[in-house]
Amino acid sequence: MPAKIVRFPTKVVQIGTVKIGGQNPIAVQSMTNTVTTDVRATLKQIKACADAGCNIIRVTVQDQKALEAFAKIKKLSPLPVVADIHFDYRMAIGAIEAGADKIRINPGNLQGAAKLKEIIAAAKKRRIPIRIGVNSGSAKKDLVRLAVEYCEFFEAQKFRNIVLSLKSSSVINSLDAYIRMAQKRNYPLHVGITEAGTEYYGALKSAVGLGALLTRGLGDTVRVSLTADPVKEVFAARYILKSLGLLACPEVISCPTCGRTQIDIIGLANQVEQRLQKLRKNITVAVMGCVVNGPGEAAHADYGIAGGKGQGIIFARGKRLKTVPEQKLVEELFKLIEHS
């Protein structure tokens, strides 16, 4: 039997229609980068993230106009919406009253203990969770020590509907913080590498950090933080989860290019990957550059194509089905997938 990751036991928390923690599926999260007051653009981006497989979306609420827009966004969003709050405690209370499914705060920048107690009371009344987010960039002390202090404050108010995140732009520091925190509290963990970088490097850096955490069973929600379209964050997060057997979704396996390749294997692999993003089938699709070895090397794939000179074969689970011209390979492959 294949090895299986054993999830670290955490409390179950409800975020709108999504349950996280315990043995619930790891949720993919992203954050809009539109101006919140542009309700139409923000909703369009949320829908695009939902179509890509996002489970939870976060929206910044930085002032009164954004708060008014947030109320409209929440009513029309296809995803549970988290309000991202910094500095002004009134925005947190307003977002809670506007229907936020969760709020994300850094308690250290919310105008003192009295104001924080008001936020907790509002969240308790509406029975929504609060994500306590501590980042290395804004923390003046050890992340774990700081997070524990915040937990103790919340617990003293008899509030335990908590999600924790302890993010750093350093993979090693993030890994250390999450591992130590898991030994101190069993609240669900939102994991990620903050300020990871651009689309390419940020995805690689996140894969290293998230992979190290997830293989240890740590993580109940994930975000890949990229300087890019949020939809690309969603795809990257889903691919990371898929690679660890933690998400049922399509996967492409493809051979590296070599001197034997006589078709555009790079272009074919990219076309197949792009089209698979729209499917919700839990399948593996192979794109191989060699007709002789392709089906054998990728016999475990559900479907595949293997190229020759100007043409290729369509195969399923190692069995050759037909030969078609190169320009028709992708189309014929997806006819097979969609009708199977």
How would you portray this structure in words?
The chain has 340 residues and is of the alpha/beta class. The chain folds into 2 domains: 231 residues, Dihydropteroate synthase-like (TIM Barrel); 88 residues, Sulfite Reductase Hemoprotein, domain 1. It contains 11 helices and 17 strands. It has an 8-stranded parallel beta sheet. The chain has a 5-stranded mixed beta sheet with strand order 13-14-15-16-17. β1 and β2 form a beta hairpin. It is elongated. One of its GO terms (biological process) is terpenoid biosynthetic process. This is 4-hydroxy-3-methylbut-2-en-1-yl diphosphate synthase (flavodoxin). It catalyses: (2E)-4-hydroxy-3-methylbut-2-enyl diphosphate + oxidized [flavodoxin] + H2O + 2 H(+) = 2-C-methyl-D-erythritol 2,4-cyclic diphosphate + reduced [flavodoxin]. One of its GO terms (molecular function) is 4-hydroxy-3-methylbut-2-enyl-diphosphate synthase activity (flavodoxin).
